[in-house]
Amino acid sequence: MASDLRCSGIAAVRLNTFEAYGMVTSSTTLGEMLAESVFSLATETTGADAEEAKRWEVEPSRYIREKLYLHLWCVDLAVTRAVGHESAHRPRILDAFYKRTGDIAAGIGWSSLMSDLAIRNASYAEAFNRPHEMGIPYTVGKAFALACNSEWDAAVIMIGAKLFAGYETAIGDLVRTWRRDHS
To answer: How much is the pTM?
Structure first.
């Protein structure tokens, strides 16, 4: 059930983001919209996530927080992969994304989010750049499980792998479509 909710949550964000796509006229607007989408997904799935965390014996608030960090990092990765490292769009999209992320975090009283996110981004980037023989999703899932204090729990590793693969693909598709239409 929770897996169905998670998958439908990603699909809903993807659909809502694509529906809002017509309003995206600049790379700045795209970055802001991506940040709002991540927080919207986190808000919409909090109850299901808490239940899932309990089932896997992960502290619910930690699981929800770590899932948000993973999604935020996925946006950074997806943007970089979709527009290219050297693209003029990349810094504009990501600057707007991180500024809006910081604004949202400040608005909800989460003052440590940006510093904590920098640590998670480094951890996920290392996992991405040094994949296990089982592939990048597994390695990212392993980093997610470690952040959840469940490093050896196969179910939590697989949840992290699925979250990464699904969200990075959805955001990558959106950004590639935007780039095609705005190049």
So the answer is: 0.85
